[in-house]
């Protein structure tokens, strides 16, 4: 595992951007075993041989990383040029396949940071990392959670991808927030869970929070192959893909999940998605917005989502729109192929 710093600037003479790559720190799983190796002794080796996934968390005093196979939290020391292990958890007792962060803000301006992790057992664990993230002192293992604050059973087997959409305080609910959690697995199923985050007042325990699973929906055969990538384009609108070479749009309403459209992609072995919204010119309510979807695998493909109309969505106090719990007809969309950027790996 390596960490780099990118220095991006401009070339004044040619007017071209320039990039300088500086290695900050590095870490190997087998470093400690190399130091302990002795030809006269048998040393128990670490069964974890690789880091399949890495996630960065921006903390108040350092940059920390959470990485599976087991769940591990590192801090990066540029001065010493190495990673320092702060915390690790073997809660899943299985290979961790996906992790995703979520950040909320309560009524007092305090930041709440949650980490969602999923493994091959089909369960999703929610970790409260707020104490580590908000500490003024260097993070230590004592600040990290010992167990997840919520576990959500979602799939029959491995959970390949996670996507979250956080909704802050909204009208009439000043003591809590809501998180929409979507997941896709090896079973080809698409699952969506609605989680209520309840903030306790100072008289009830200070900064403690309580997470409750409000509702859960699923589509058993969302894809004909393992669902490998999932993104939330907007509140109530999901995009998914799979090695079956289909890109699907899903609408989330009060009655559950329904498919809005599908398109056969030219990208084989689809492994990832990225999405973003382009606001319509002169649009105030969101009508005329366009969404863009990039599918990657054996090549790249750019897709356009059009006619994203606002169907009476409400807004929370953060100004973000919310479809869940609103009118059933949230969005009207159509998926179009824009261009095929690259047909090679």
TrEMBL record:
GO terms for biological process: tRNA methylation. One of its GO terms (cellular component) is cytoplasm. InterPro entries: tRNA_Anticodon_Mtase-Reg, WD40/YVTN_repeat-like_dom_sf, WD40_repeat_dom_sf, WD40_rpt. The keyword Lipoprotein does not apply. The keyword Iron does not apply. It is found in: Cytoplasm. Keywords: Cytoplasm, Repeat, tRNA processing, WD repeat. Its main location: cytoplasm. Together with methyltransferase FTSJ1, methylates the 2'-O-ribose of nucleotides at position 34 of the tRNA anticodon loop of substrate tRNAs. Required for the correct positioning of the substrate tRNA for methylation. Required to suppress amino acid starvation-induced autophagy. Enhances the STK11/LKB1-induced cell growth suppression activity. Belongs to the WD repeat WDR6 family. PANTHER family: WD REPEAT PROTEIN, WD REPEAT-CONTAINING PROTEIN 6. Interacts with FTSJ1; the interaction is direct, and required for 2'-O-methylation of position 34 in substrate tRNAs. Interacts with IRS4. Interacts with STK11/LKB1. This is tRNA (34-2'-O)-methyltransferase regulator WDR6.
